TrEMBL record:
Name this protein carries in UniProt: EAL domain-containing protein
Coiled coil: none
Top-level taxon of origin: Bacteria
All copies of domain EAL, residue ranges: 23-276
Natural source organism: Sphingomonas aracearum
Length: 278
């Protein structure tokens, strides 16, 4: 029995070891990927409900891995965060987004782009320096950039995070509270943040048209946000009935597979052109 238990122990240890090795390999590859163009930025439209137009998008990172195909962010963002690669990665996303934004503007499409900024980057002085440098050299328009941050970003070191967000706001960047409803933010706390927008998490939105409690939660969040002067985005809309429900509640923006999956830059341009020709 002892031997069997040891056997199990070693097998587990080996599994951990090989997983660790895989992660180390992956991180080495990520460094290369960042310079080789294998890290792609895709864009998911947000529909402005009052005008039925796509005026903004969320930048979502994808890794085109030579052997493994597309790797989604959930498989490498946490690792990038743990190994200090999240800064360079986010800088890459922001630079790519601002270049695409300029290209789209030349084609006649003014698009606001939201970039996800991890909790641990919000109060990072290095990241802030990089952002300022990008804004200095780029022709992009900071007032058409949004940083999506989660509540946890502002809870680890509240004072530093709140101060940093105010400085980003002063640069012209919009701040959006992502995944709203999954944390424990209070109203009085949210008021300290220079927010332009609140994104209601998919877990509340997805079935809000069918589930009474979810529906009530979404309704009261929209009312609360509006009373604070914030725009509301509902994410994870997968059905027409859900879209109709949110329209009825006065939600400002809708995002989800029912409107569009995240698209490569070229496909997004095609969609924008097709819609503006309607
Ligand atoms: P998120 O910020 O909540 O982004 C929304 C996620 O929901 C995206 O997954 C998107 O593809 C997916 N989604 C959109 N509409 C629907 C829908 O109708 N139904 C369902 N089931 N899913 C939908 P994705 O691209 O896999 O991103 C996952 C998470 O990875 C993001 O969650 C975000 O937290 C993180 N992430 C993505 N790109 C970046 C980045 O550049 N930097 C950082 N720090 N995090 C990123
Ligand atoms: Ca987001
Ligand atoms: Ca989200
Ligand atoms: Ca989410």
């Amino acid at each position: 029995e002892e031997a069997a238990r040891e056997g199990v122990f070693w097998r587990v240890a080996e599994a951990d070891q090989s997983q660790l090795e895989r992660q180390v390999t992956l991180m080495g590859e990520l460094d290369d990927a960042l310079t080789s163009g294998a890290i792609e930025v895709h864009y998911q439209p947000k529909l402005l409900l009052s005008e039925n137009r796509i005026v903004s998008v969320e930048a979502l990172v994808r890794w085109r891995h030579p052997e493994r195909g597309f790797i989604g962010p959930d498989a490498f963002i946490p690792l990038a965060e743990q190994t200090d690669r999240i800064g360079p990665l986010t800088v890459h996303v922001l630079e790519t987004a601002m270049h695409d934004q300029v290209r789209w503007r030349l084609l006649g499409h003014d698009v606001t782009i939201a970039v996800n900024v991890s909790a641990r980057l919000v109060a990072s002085a290095d990241f802030e320096q990089d952002v300022r440098a990008i804004l200095r050299k780029d022709v992009g328009d900071p007032s058409r950039i949004i940083f999506e941050v989660t509540e946890s970003a502002t809870l680890t070191d509240p004072e530093a995070a709140v101060a940093a967000l105010h400085r980003y706001r002063a640069l012209g960047i919009g701040i959006s509270m992502d995944d709203y409803g999954t944390g424990q933010s209070t109203l009085s706390y949210l008021r300290q943040l220079p927010l332009a927008e609140l994104k209601i998490d998919r877990s509340f939105v997805q079935f809000s048209h069918r589930n009474r409690n979810d529906g009530l939660m979404v309704r009261s969040t929209i009312d609360l946000a509006h009373s604070l002067g914030l725009k509301v985005v509902a994410e994870g809309i997968e059905e027409e009935a859900c879209l109709a429900f949110l329209r009825e509640l006065g939600c400002d923006y809708a995002q989800g597979y029912h409107i569009s999956r995240p698209l490569r830059a070229e496909a997004l341009v095609q969609l924008l052109s097709a819609r503006s020709n309607l």
